[in-house]
Design brief:
about 50% helix; alpha/beta; 13 helices; 7 strands
């Protein structure tokens, strides 16, 4: 065991596959351990590099193993796949993780703290409830359309729906089921409002979140999402690297010295990316009325490009601004109105 340099772990709920290797890649052991045996076995090992795929429960085990003195490295599964030899099984996956971690240029994922994952749960729960509310509204609109009741999309029309379902032209069963839908929508509204108040309260307690909200297009939800999902900004060398981590940079198809850029890669953190694009769209909508301030970046872009493309480009700019603010510990400043 003294020779162990790196341990690759294939995570699961109850059974863990462990692959130990020396610094030169020699296989030292292959073990299948239960959930209870795994922490005891890792505690008995001397401090070494422990590599795992960045998947479910990886951050929890990363914190546990780091507490035992190990150097934990989480690798995106897409980077591990290339090292799997022919047949896929748990032992092959653990070996592939260990071999991938040996590569000096391999990219890793920072282990999230328990507080970060708690905040992530807050946002994911809100997204789930918003999706359920949208599903309920659309289902109700679809059912009522079969009885000649037509209303537009959006939550703004729910009040009108509640009025129309009491019409005498609708069967009693339809009215009863419609009231059930409306009560569920009202309950989801209350739960979402409670989460929004919780997010706003958390945002007021954080100096970083308050500073991020000064950026046009970034509100409390987006600012809190950045602190919940993003690693330390010192992990990125420059603002473009953070934008690439979010999936806001063009996909490359370059060859032969010719640069060919396509659509945005979307290979990144989707929660922050979605919120930044939504915020950028609001800026484009309100600041871009009438073509925007003459001579500004927004005005020049709107004159040449579609609004959605401009919003994504602005989201890219916002990501770089966030990186600069957090790395340099500065407040947002745009004295000349260069963007809007």
């Amino acid at each position: 065991m003294e020779e162990v340099s790196i341990v690759g772990v294939d995570l699961a709920k109850q059974v863990f596959q462990v692959h130990g290797a020396a610094s030169d890649g020699r296989v030292l052991f292959r073990k299948k351990l239960s959930r209870l045996q795994f922490p005891k076995f890792m505690a008995a090992l001397p401090p070494c590099v422990v590599a795992m795929e960045a998947c479910g429960t990886a951050h929890y085990w990363g914190r546990e193993l780091a507490g035992l003195g190990h150097d934990v490295r989480l690798i995106p599964p897409v980077y591990v796949k290339a090292f799997v030899k022919r047949q896929k099984n748990d032992a092959a996956d653990a070996e592939a993780v260990a071999e991938a971690a040996m590569r000096p240029t391999m990219r890793t994922v920072a282990v999230k703290t328990s507080n970060q994952q708690a905040r992530a749960m807050l946002f994911r729960t809100r997204d789930l409830l918003v999706g359920q509310r949208t599903q309920m509204v659309n289902a109700l609109r679809g059912h009522l359309a079969e009885h000649g009741v037509i209303v537009g999309k959006g939550l703004g029309n729910v009040e009108r729906l509640s009025t129309l379902v009491t019409s005498d032209n609708l069967p009693e069963l339809v009215q009863s089921m419609s009231r059930l839908y409306l009560s569920q929508i009202a309950q989801l509204n209350e739960e979402i409002d409670q989460i929004d108040r919780r997010i706003a309260a958390e945002a007021r307690q954080s100096d970083v979140v308050r500073r991020l909200q000064k950026v046009p297009g970034i509100g409390p939800i987006c600012a809190m999402a950045i602190t919940a999902f993003a690693p330390s900004m010192e992990e990125f060398r420059r603002g473009r690297d953070f934008a690439a981590w979010l999936g806001l940079v063009p996909r490359q198809h370059s060859s032969g010295g010719k640069q060919k850029l396509g659509r945005t890669s979307k290979m990144g953190q989707r929660d922050i990316r979605r919120l930044l694009i939504i915020g950028a769209m609001s800026v484009v909508h309100w600041k871009g009325r009438g073509g925007g301030r003459p001579g500004s970046w927004l005005s020049n872009m709107l004159a040449r490009k579609p609004r959605m493309l401009v919003a994504i480009a602005m989201a890219n700019k916002m990501a770089r601004v966030v990186w600069a603010m957090l790395v340099r510990n500065e407040d947002y400043r745009d004295p000349t109105g260069a963007v809007c």
